[in-house]
Specification:
Elements (H helix, E strand, L loop, with lengths): L2 H17 L17 H8 L1 H4 L2 H10 L4 H15 L2 H10 L11 H20 L7 H9 L3 H6 L7 E5 L5 E3 L2 E5 L1 H8 L21
Parallel strand pairs: 1-3
Antiparallel strand pairs: 1-2
Amino acid sequence: MDVKGMIAAERRELADLLDGLPAERWNAPTLCAGWRVREVAAHMSMGFRYPFPRVAAELVRARGSLNRMTDRLARRDAAVFSPAEIAGFLRDNAHHPWTPPVGGSVAALGHDVVHGLDITVPLGLDRRVPEDRLRVLLEAVTPRGARFFGADLAGVRLCAEDLDWSFGDGAPLYGDAQDLLLVAFGRRLPEGRLRGERSGRFVAA
């Protein structure tokens, strides 16, 4: 698996997609509560632009809260940089070696793919994540990872309708593989994307 190649391709494709968005859509809501497209896109490039000492200082300022730190930086960067600059950060850093604190390259791919879907799903854009990238991420889904992202999968079996993949035990929850990946990452989806008796648990209010 050329995971680093997948990451580079994902970043370039998302940069192209962002470049094509009308200006008003940069203010549209995303699956990340409280963040518009511009905050999610700005956050995606944070790891490229902030060296570790700066991140450590920002974390101290946020009193140790990673969520508080990333929220503040995303909002600040979204206000400072133009849409063209934010898209450019992804394109220019397609091969940047950044990875999250845990999970290595696969986690970095997940970061890019899931945040890309955080943008495209609520915008109603029919972007299909390539199957090879999806399979890497789906095979990496674990109960521990789902809990980390706040996904309540108790009593549910995720069953992809477009790929041969399932995860968990319990009542089947049907949907496209990339939508089920979002569920495993703790996202709530627009109505109509999932099927099953427990689907309401994973639908946005």
